[in-house]
Amino acid sequence: NLVKKKFNTTSIIITHDLTCAKSTGDKIAMLFDGKFIKQGTFDEVFSSDDQRIQDFYKYNFINAESKQSQ
Predict the structure, then answer these.
(1) Is 1 helix (H, G, I), strand (E, B) or coil?
(2) pLDDT score at 39
(3) pTM for this one?
(4) How far is residue 62's CA from residue 22's CA, in Å, rounded to a whole number?
(5) Beta carbons of 60 and 16 less than 8 angstroms apart
(6) DSSP state of 3
(7) Choosing a second label site near 50 at 20 to 30 A (CA), which of 6, 24, 31, 43?
(8) In the chain, which ranges are E strands?
(9) pLDDT in tens, 48-66
(10) Which positions of the chain have pLDDT values less than 70?
(11) Torsion angle (degrees, nearest 10) of CA 26, 55, 17, 1
(12) From CA 25, how far away is CA 1, in angstroms rounded?
């Protein structure tokens, strides 16, 4: 957000890191098999009922927790 404000520009960041996505993006898009399946704010996307999105969120959340406990 600092870059956006300072340079008045838009960026596209591609990541699987949910922390990065939440902290850097005003809006995010979720892709599955190369197609957009959901766009919006982080909370809008990850509160979706779409099972593919929920599975991705759970997988990343579980992996993040296991890394922290090591």
Answers:
(1) coil
(2) 96
(3) 0.71
(4) 17
(5) yes
(6) H
(7) 24
(8) 28-32, 35-40
(9) 999 999 999 888 877 655 5
(10) 1, 63-70
(11) 10
(12) 7
